[in-house]
C-alpha cells in the first residue's frame, strides 16, 4: 500500500513538473517565433557583452533566433504530448543545466538589462530569471529521473509521429510569416492603437527615476570622481570618462527616448509630428545601407499619394548623411529625412524599411516592406479607407485565430490518420478471414 501511494505521489509530481516545463517552453518558443527580429537583437546584445560581435557572421543572430524559437516550442510541444519520452526530458535537462548558471552570471555581472527569454511579452529582471530557472531546473531533474514511468502520453503510438511533425512545421511556418510580415502579437509600446504622447508621460503622483552622473578626471596621474555639485574649478584636471547610475528608482514611462530631428537643419520635429491632427506617414529604416529596396516603387507611390492628399511623409533613420545620400541616388527618393535613435526605430517596427501611419501621435497602422499599400488600396483619402482607421481586432481575437489555425489542421490530420488506421485494420481483418475460409 505504501509503495502504491509513493508511486502515485511520484506520478503526480512528474506530471506537474512536465506540464510546467511544457507550458514555459511552448510560451518562450512561441514568443521568439512571434518576434524573431527582437530575439536576434537580444542575441546581438549577448555577443556584444561577451566581445564576440566582430567574430560572428552578421546572419548568425537571425538564424539563431529562428532556431531557438523552433527548438523551444518543439521541445515544449513534445513534453506536453509525451512524445519522445526519452530524448525530450534529456534535452530539457541539458538546456536548463546550461541556462541556470548563465543567468546566474547575468544576475551578478548585469551586462544586459534582461535575458529576453520571454521577449517584450513578460519582462523579468536578471535575478527573477535566475530564480525562475532554478524552479525549472528542479522540475527538469524530476522529469528526467522518472521519465520512463511517470510521463503519460496524450496521443497514441500510431499518431505521435504526425503530431510531432505538425508541431515543428507549424512553428516554422509561423516564424517565417512573422519575419516576412510583422509580429502577430505586438507587445512593444508602439503597437497599433498606442498613443505615443501618453506613453511618454509620467502619471500624476508617480515619481520619475532620478539619475546621478559621475565625472572622472585625472591630474598628476591621479584619477578622481566628481559630481555636478563638486565639479572641479581647476582647469588643469583632464576629463577621462563619465558614469551614470540610478540614484532613486521611480516610474519609467514605456516610451522615454522618442525624438525626431530634421536631417536637413537639426530642427526638433517631435512635437509637430505628435500634435498633427492629420495623418503622417513614417518610413522607418534604422540602417539605409542594409534596407530592402525591392519595393521602392511602392514607397514612392505612397509618398506621391501623401503629397496629393496633403499628408506629411518622413523617413526616420539612424543612418549617416553619406548613407542617406546613397539611398537617394539609388532610389530616387524625394521625401525628407529625419534622425531618430537606432534602438527606438528597431522597436517601432520590425522591418527595414517599414511604414507607420500616425494621427495625432496615435499609431493607426503598420506595414512591413512586404505588405506596403499600393495604388489599388490608396484610392481615396485615408479617412475614407479602412487602413485609415484603427483595426478593431483585439489580442484575444488574434489568439483565437492562431489557436484555430494550429488546432484545426492538427485535429483534422489526426482524425484522417485514425480513420485510415481503422480502415486498414478492418481490411487486414477481412483478408485474414478470407484466407481462413
Helix-strand string:
HHHHHHHHEEEEHEHEHEHEEH
Secondary-structure-derived class = alpha+beta
Determine Rg (CA atoms, Å).
28 Å
- The residue ranges in which pLDDT falls below 50 over 5 or more consecutive positions are none
* Beta-strand percent range: 5-15%
Strand order of the largest sheet: 4-7-6-5-8-9
Helical run tally:
13
Number of strands: 9
Q: How would you sum up the major sheet?
A: 6 strands, mixed
Distance between the termini: 51 Å
The shape is: globular
Helix content: 40-55%
Mean pLDDT, all residues: 86
Commentary on this structure:
This protein is α+β, with helices and mostly antiparallel strands and 437 residues long. The protein has 13 helices and nine strands. The protein has helices at 2-34, 36-50, 60-81, 87-109, 126-145, 147-150, 160-180, 196-199, 270-274, 296-309, 321-331, 342-348, 395-436; strands at residues 210-219, 222-226, 238-248, 261-262, 279-285, 312-317, 337-339, 354-359, 362-368. Strands 4-7-6-5-8-9 form a six-stranded mixed β-sheet, sandwiched between helices. The protein has a three-stranded antiparallel β-sheet with strand order 2-1-3, with no helix packed on it. A hairpin with a 2-residue loop joins β1 and β2 (222-226). α2 (36-50) crosses α3 (60-81), α3 packs antiparallel against α7 and α4 (87-109) packs antiparallel against α5 (126-145). The protein is globular.
